[in-house]
Fold this protein.
Amino acid sequence: MRQTWHVPRAQAAQRTSSAPAIMCAIVVLATACLPLPLLAQAQRATAVPHIGYVYPAGGRPGTTVRVVLGGQALATPLQLWCDCPEITTRVLEHIRPMPLQRFNQIREQIRELESKRRQWRRALATGSDPGSNSWTRADAQQLDELYRQLAKNPPNREATPAIAETVIAELIIPATVQPGELELRLLCAGGLSNPLKFVIDPWPETTKPPIRPAHPELDRVLTRAGYPPISPPQSFETNVSIPTTINGQLPPGGVDKFRFTALAGQKLFIRASARRLIPYIADAVPGWCQLTLAIRDKSGKLILFADDTEYDPDPSLCLEPARDGQYVLEVADALYRGREDFLYRITLLHAPDSNAPTVQMAAVNAESEAEPHALTASQTTKHTASAPIPLSLPLPISKKPSAAAYLRTRPELTSIPTTAETEPNDTPGAAQVVVQPTLLTGCIEHADDVDCFAVTVPQSGNLALEVLARRLGSPLDSVLELLDASGKIIASNDDHPDPAAGLVTHQADSYLLCTNLVPGRYLVRVRDAQGRAGLDHTYLLRISEPRPDFTVLVAPASLTLRPAGGASFTAHVIRRDGFSEEVQLLIAEAPAGVMLEGGLIPAGAHQAPVSVRVRPGAIPVFTPFPIKLAARAGAGSNQLVRTVLPADEMMQAFAYRHLVPASELVAVMVRPREALPGITLLGPVPVQIRPGASATIRLAHHGTNLPTAIAFEPVVPVKGLILGTGVIKSNILELTVRCDAIDIPGAVKTNLVIRAVRGPASGEQGVARRAPDRVLGVLPPVPIEIMPPL
Amino acid sequence: MNTHSRQENLLGSHWTRRGFLVRVGFGIAGLLALARLPRLNAEVTSINASRAVPDRPKANGAKSVIQIWLWGGPSHLDTFDPKPEAGPDYCGQFQNPIETSVPGVRICEALPELAKIADKYVLIRSLSHGINAHETAAYLVQTGWPPGGREVHPCIGAVVSLRKGYEAGYTGLLPPYIVLTQPQGRFSEAGFLGNKYKPFATGGNPAQTPFAVEGIVAPGISTARQLRRRQLLTQLDVIPTLLSNHPQVQLAVEAERQAYEMILGEGAKVFDLSTEPAAVRDRYGRNTFGQACLVARRLVEAGVPYITINYTGWDTHKQHFQTMRRMLPELDRGLATLLVDLDQRGLLASTVVWCCGEFGRTPRIQWEPPWNGGRGHWGHAFSALLAGGGIKGGQVLGATDAKGEYVKDRPVHPAELLATIYTLLGIDPHSTLPHPTGESVTVLPETTPDGRKVEPIRELIA
C-alpha cells in the first residue's frame, strides 16, 4: 500500500528555488572532472542502466580492444568501469534506436531525393531540361548521409528492447595484465550498471564482426540503394591460426565456421565459453546460450561433436587428428537460437605449448578427460576475489573453477580435518571407520560402488552429514543415508537446496541434520542416485556435529546512490546446520562517510532489505567506489564473522531466480533531477504493532525541495504489513503501518525499508514507466516489532 | 499405456489408429471417426471398467461444460481481482476498476460487458497452488492432482468424456470432448485413461470462412468432390469385400460410414458459422476467440458434454499492458456474449462455464529489463470465473491481500473448483476411475496439500 499526496505548486516552486547552496557547491566541486555538457545530461537522466552483453567478451594483454555493450537506459555513458585498475577504458559512442518520427522524416527525405534523381536521370536520358530537378553534389551527399543515419540506428521492431541500445568503448590492456576474469560495468547518467564478465586470455584473438538484429525491410531499402544490409549473415566462415581465442555472436539460425590446419600426432584442445560469460538469459529457454562445437574434416565428415562438458553446458573437445589437413570448427546454438547476447569465446590450443603457463597445466593433465577444465581453472584465479582453494580436494574437483567459486561461500570448511576414503568400503561390514569431525574425500568409482563409513554419534546425539560434489563441479548425483547398528535406514536425503550455489542449475548434493540420536555407532552411506560412476565422481563428505553457520550474499552488486536518498539492497542469508540467530551487517571497508543502515537480519529470516547512505559531500558524484561488507552473529566466543559476498539476482528461462556471484560490490553517487531531502527517523523506535492494529512511523525531513508528487512503498514487502496513509505536518512526515498478519506466529523483529518514488502526477492515468525511473531515494530503515496478539 | 497396447495387438501390430487410417485412405477425416472406433467394440476398449465405482449423482443439472482456458496465465489484478489501492507498481495502466451489476464487486475497467452481467457468474479470487511453471501448474489446475506423482491423471475434460461420453449413453455424432482449436498439450489430457479420452482438437480458425475443422471440413473440397473421392476409394479398397466377415474390418467399415456421416452431415453443420446471423457473429466479436465462443455454444446445443476453448497469449512477460489492452476486450466481448446467449437460449442452467488460466501473474509489475513492464508467473494467488449449470451467480468467493500477492480469505485449491464442476455434472469427485493396471485411483485427491478435504464449494451451488 502506498500513499501519494501532492504538494501545492506554489509551495513546491518555492522549495525548489531555495535548495541549499552548500549542496550545489559540493556537486559543482565534485563533478568538476566531467565535461559540462555531459554533466548537464547526467543531471537530467534518472533510469539506472542495465547491460545485457559485452562483445567481444575478452581480450589479450598488450592490445586495445573495441567493445560493444548492449543494454537499456545507456544514455550519457560516462565511464566503462573495470575491476582491474591497470586497464584503461574510454567510452566512444552511444547509439540508440532512432525515434519513429525521425525515421519517418528520413524516409520521406530519401523518397523525395530519390524521386528527384530519377527525374533528373530521365531528363538526361531524353535530353530534356531537368529544371528544378537538377541533381547536385549536395543532393548526393545528403542522400548518402540519410542512408548512413538509417543504417546506423534504425528503429527495429525485431530488436529486443533490453539490448537495443549500444555503447562503443575501448579497453587498453597493458601487456602486464595477467590472464583471468574481470568485470565491466557501465557508468551512465542514471547510475552504475550490472557487471558482466570480460576475460583476459594470452592468445591472439580472432573476432567476428559484431552482429545487429535482423531488419529485412531496411535491408531491402539499403541494398536497393547500393548499401550493405545490416542483418547478420546466417553463416560466417574464416581461417584461424592456432593458438587463438575466437569471439563470436550468433544470429538466429547462425552457424559460424572456423577453418584451421592440424597435423597428425598433434593434440588440440578446444574450450568454449558461453554460459560462463553470461550465466543466465532471462528470456530464453534454456536460460543461456547452449553452444555446440563440431569438427569436420575437409570433406565435411563429422569428426567430433560436443554440446557440453559433463554438467557444464559449455562444451569442450580434444582433437587428435588422424592425418594432416584442414579442419573446420562449427559453432552454433543447440536450438539454433541467436541474438546479440548469444555470444561466445572459444580457445584453440596445441598441447603442450610452453609459451603459456596455463598450457603447462593442461599438459600436466593431458591424460585426463576433464582436461579443458584445467585451462579455465587456472584463468579464474588471477583476478577474481576467489582465493586458492584451501582444501585438499580430489583432482577432478580441484581443477574446477566452480569449486573455487563455491568454496568462497564456505570458509568454515577449512577448519575441518580431511580424511581420504579407503576402498574397499562397499558393505557395512567393510565400512571405513572415521572420526568426526572430518571432511572425507571420496569417489564413486564404478557402477555398484557404495561408500560406507562407520561413525560414532557423540553424547549430544546430533550429527550433520553433507555431501559437496555437484556444487564443486563433480557429476556425482549423491544419495546420503544414515543407518543404525541394525542396518535400518533412519534418515536419507537425495537433494538439498543451496541458494549459494547460484550457478548450479541442478543442485544434486545431499544433506542430513540428525538430532536426538542415541549415541553410538552408525553407518553413513553414499551412492550415486543414477547409478553412474567414474573416477571423476568425486565428493567431499562432511561428518561432524552440527556447526551452525551462515553465508550472506547481497544483491545487486552495483548500487546507484542518490544524494540523501541513498540506495537499498537485499541481504540473503543462507543458514546452515540449524543456525537461526540474527545477523548484523557491517561495513568492512568503504570510503569515509559511507553508512550502512538497518543491516539487521532478524533471527530465522532468510532475507532482509538494507540501505546504504553517504554523508553529504563525502563522495564525489559519478565516481564508482567499492564497498566491502562483513556479517556478524552471536557474541563472545560464539561470535561468527563472515565476509559478505556480492551477487546479482538473475532470472533463468522466465521463471527461476539465481544469485550469481560478482567480484565486488560497487557503488556510485549520482545527481538526479529530483532528489529527496535529508530524512531522519523520529521516535519512538522500534515501532511496535500487533496483528489487526495500526501504528505510526514519524520522520522529519530537513529540506524544502520535496517533489511535488511523492509516494512511499516498502522496498521488500513484509508479509502482513501494509503501509497506509501518510500525512505531512510542517517538516514531519507521518506514515501509518497496519499489521494485517494472518500467519505471523509470534513476535517478529524486522526493519521496514521504505523507498520514496515519484507518484503519478495529478490527473495522470496509469503508469507505463519503469519503476527505477521514479525512485527518489530510500528512507532510514524503520525497526518494527510485531507483538503477539493480545 | 496398456490401453493403447491392447488395441494395437487386437488390430494387428501394424494397425495403429493412424496406420489404419493411412491404409484405408481416409485421410484426416477418418481420424475423427476412428476416435470413436473403440466404443464399437467393448472388448477392444475394456480396461478394468468393472472396477469403477458407479457415480452417485448429487446435483445433476449440468449437462455440458465450456472451459475457457486462458493459457499462459492471465494477471488476476488486471482481470477479476483489481487492486487500485496498491499503487502504480501493481496496477500499471489499470487503476480505475469499474463497478459491476453486483454492488461492491469491481473488475478491471477493460471488461465492461462482463461488468454488466456479474449476477450471472461467480468470481473466485482465492485460487492458489504455489506452482510457477506452466506445464505443472496447468496439469494441477486441469486434473486437481499435484504434478510429479507416479500416475498421470486425466484432466477434467477426459473424465467427463469417460463419464458423460459414449459409455454413459452419449449418442452424439461429435466427439464428447472437443478443444477449440489447438490442444492444450501433453500435461493436461487423458492421462492413464488412454488416448480414447483425449480431446478432439478442431484446428483451423473459426473466424475464417470456412472454419476448416481438421478432419471434418476440408478446405477447398466441395461435398460433391468428397463423394467422388469416397466412390473411388471404395473401388480401390478391396479389403472390406475380401474380409467382410472379419470383425475388425467390420469395425473399420462402420467407422468409415460414421466418419462420412460426420463430414458430410450434421457434424459439419455445427461448425458452419455461415448459418449464424451476421449480427450474432458480430456480437461475439469477429476474432478467433469470439467465434470460438459461438462454436462452443453450437456444440452445447449439439449435446457435446465438454468443450474447451484454448485461448492462448496470456503469458505476458513482456509487452504486458499492450497485450492486455488488445486481449481483454476480446475476452470481455466473447465471454459476456456467450453467457448472455446461453442464458437467452435457456442453456446456461445446464452448462457450466469456467474461465481461468494455470496461474496468475506477479502482482508487482516487473519494470526491469528485459521485462520492461511485464508480469511473471504467480501461482500463489489467481482468479477464476464460474457460471451456469447450477452455479449461484452474483458473488465473490475468497480474497487476496491488499496487493493481490497471497490469499487472505477462503483459500480455494483447484481440486475444489473441479470438485464443484464434477458435482454439478453428477460425477462423484471421489469415485474410482478405470485404471489400466487395476490401481484404485479416484477422480480427485482426498485432500488438498494443506489438509482440507476436497469437496465441492457449497457456497457456489444454487
About this structure: Chain A has ten helices and 52 strands. Chain A touches chain B at residues 1-2, 4, 50, 52, 71-73, 160-163, 282-283, 654-655, 711, 713, 717, 719, 722, 740, 742, 757, 759-760, 765-773 (CB under 8 Å). The two ends of chain A are 25 Å apart (CA to CA).
